[in-house]
């Protein structure tokens, strides 16, 4: 009685441009014909589509096939060509080793059989694997060189279309570009990434893939240099792109600086009070902290080692928030505000210069850390060199924070009445950004009486503009 040969068919294609898997289907059809001609049973077909055998990426189906061979469940392996099985000599040795232990001698390819049970067969398999590896290396280098050339010429790199551009990756989709511009302006205005993500979801604006927006998706769009008409390669900007910019290169630098400041500050907790960090105690000058007493929201001066205040001042949150918001809206329409923004162009130039300084210092700090990790310098040397760099970063960051408020007020100066009508519809993050761009802080003086009535004369604002 002739024993049934349980054959494993393995098919792989490293790049499925159409996304239809046609290359794999052609391989499978030829392999099935070989099995039928030999009277073998196709026990299972193992398929890895769009995975390279040279790059060293995991191939789940290939690994499962090896497990089945090792378990004695397969008697032969059929492939279209040996380079479909592997292009890495070290992987070939692993494959043949498993086959030898399991007693699998037949490796059948559409282009020719290899007997793994004799020296000649192993020699041929190794030669074919070495040739395939060399060709893959050459192909990889050609692709890398072509990618560099395309980048330096400002050409797009293919793939899925980016948000803001058509499938050709060059033509601007104006409706999406308007969204990008608004996201950029609002983030520079101080609005949180979470707030922007909720806004774009509420607007029903789809992503390119039709999936839900996440903060990481919005952040990726805003960090991408392509929206500023810049071409990057391996994370480095190599020059101008051939497609139109949606935002200016200056705005792109401002966005990167804003992201860097958020990372440095480590501030992630969302606000729950409109004036958190903006109020001062009229007794001791300490910051007021938000607190709830019963059902009433308040701002209080807190004593103790963690706060350091006098603990002798409190004010109900609602009325003071309404008063400050109204004062800001009135100030937006004042001549003083227009005068304060008269030097905006100079401020933008200063912002650009400070952003460049910040990026340079951050790169130097990273280089210093890498030098210490490589044991090129001692811990004492690292600390000594680190301190002045961190001091520069801190000072630059403060100056950038002061200048960034100009972006917040874009289109708002002289439009206080219109903003007032829509104030309640703005989310808290946006309201905070607008107030913070106009108000430096407000001092709350002690109450003259113990009455519960709100006294607006207790509020002494200090305007930043």
Automatic annotation (TrEMBL):
Recombinase domain segment(s): 162-268
Entry superkingdom: Bacteria
Upper taxonomic lineage: Bacteria, Bacillati, Actinomycetota, Actinomycetes, Micrococcales
GO molecular function ontology, one term from the record: DNA binding
Protein name: Recombinase family protein
One protein family per Pfam: Resolvase
UniProt-annotated stretches for the region Disordered: 139-160
Domain called Resolvase/invertase-type recombinase catalytic: residue spans: 6-154
Record PROSITE patterns: RECOMBINASE_DNA_BIND, RECOMBINASES_3
């Amino acid at each position: 009685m002739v024993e049934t040969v349980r054959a494993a068919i393995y098919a792989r294609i490293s790049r499925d441009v159409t996304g239809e898997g046609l290359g794999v289907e052609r391989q499978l059809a030829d392999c099935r014909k070989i099995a039928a001609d030999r009277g073998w049973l196709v026990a299972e077909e193992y398929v890895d589509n769009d995975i390279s055998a040279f790059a060293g990426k995991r191939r789940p189906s290939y690994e499962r096939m090896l497990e089945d061979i090792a378990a004695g469940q397969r008697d032969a392996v059929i492939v279209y060509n040996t380079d479909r099985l592997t292009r890495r000599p070290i992987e070939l040795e692993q494959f043949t080793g498993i086959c030898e232990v399991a007693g699998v001698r037949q490796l059948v390819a559409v282009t020719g059989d290899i007997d793994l049970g004799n020296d000649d067969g192993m020699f041929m398999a190794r030669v074919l694997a070495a040739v395939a590896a060399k060709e893959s290396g050459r192909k990889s280098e050609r692709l890398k060189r072509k990618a560099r050339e395309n980048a330096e010429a400002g050409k797009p790199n293919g793939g899925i279309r980016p948000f803001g551009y058509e499938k050709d990756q060059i033509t601007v989709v104006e409706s999406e570009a308007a969204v990008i511009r608004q996201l950029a302006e609002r983030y520079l205005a101080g609005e949180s990434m979470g707030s922007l993500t909720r806004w774009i979801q509420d607007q029903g604006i789809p992503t390119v893939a039709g999936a839900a927006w996440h903060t990481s998706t919005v952040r990726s769009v805003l960090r991408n240099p392509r929206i500023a008409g810049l071409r990057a390669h391996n994370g480095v900007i190599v020059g101008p792109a051939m497609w139109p910019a949606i935002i200016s290169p200056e705005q792109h630098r401002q966005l990167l600086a804003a992201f860097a400041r958020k990372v440095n500050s480590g501030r992630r907790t969302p606000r729950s009070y409109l004036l958190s960090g903006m109020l001062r105690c009229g007794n001791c000058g300490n910051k007021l902290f938000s607190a709830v007493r019963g059902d009433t929201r308040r701002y209080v001066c807190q004593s103790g080692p963690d706060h350091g205040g006098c603990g002798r001042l409190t004010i109900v949150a609602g009325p003071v928030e309404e008063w400050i918001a109204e004062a800001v809206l009135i100030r937006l329409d004042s001549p003083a505000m227009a005068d304060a923004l008269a030097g905006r162009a100079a401020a933008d130039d200063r912002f650009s210069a400070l952003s460049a300084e910040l990026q340079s210092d951050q790169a130097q700090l990273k280089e210093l850390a890498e030098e210490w990790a490589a044991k090129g310098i001692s811990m004492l040397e690292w600390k000594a060199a680190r301190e002045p760099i961190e001091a520069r970063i801190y000072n630059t960051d403060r100056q950038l924070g002061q200048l960034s408020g100009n972006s917040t007020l874009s289109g708002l100066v002289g439009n206080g009445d219109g903003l007032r009508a829509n104030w309640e519809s703005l989310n808290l993050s946006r309201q905070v950004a607008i107030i913070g761009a106009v108000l430096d802080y407000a001092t709350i003086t002690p109450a003259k009486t113990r009455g519960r009535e709100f006294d607006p004369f207790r509020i002494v604002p200090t305007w930043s503009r």
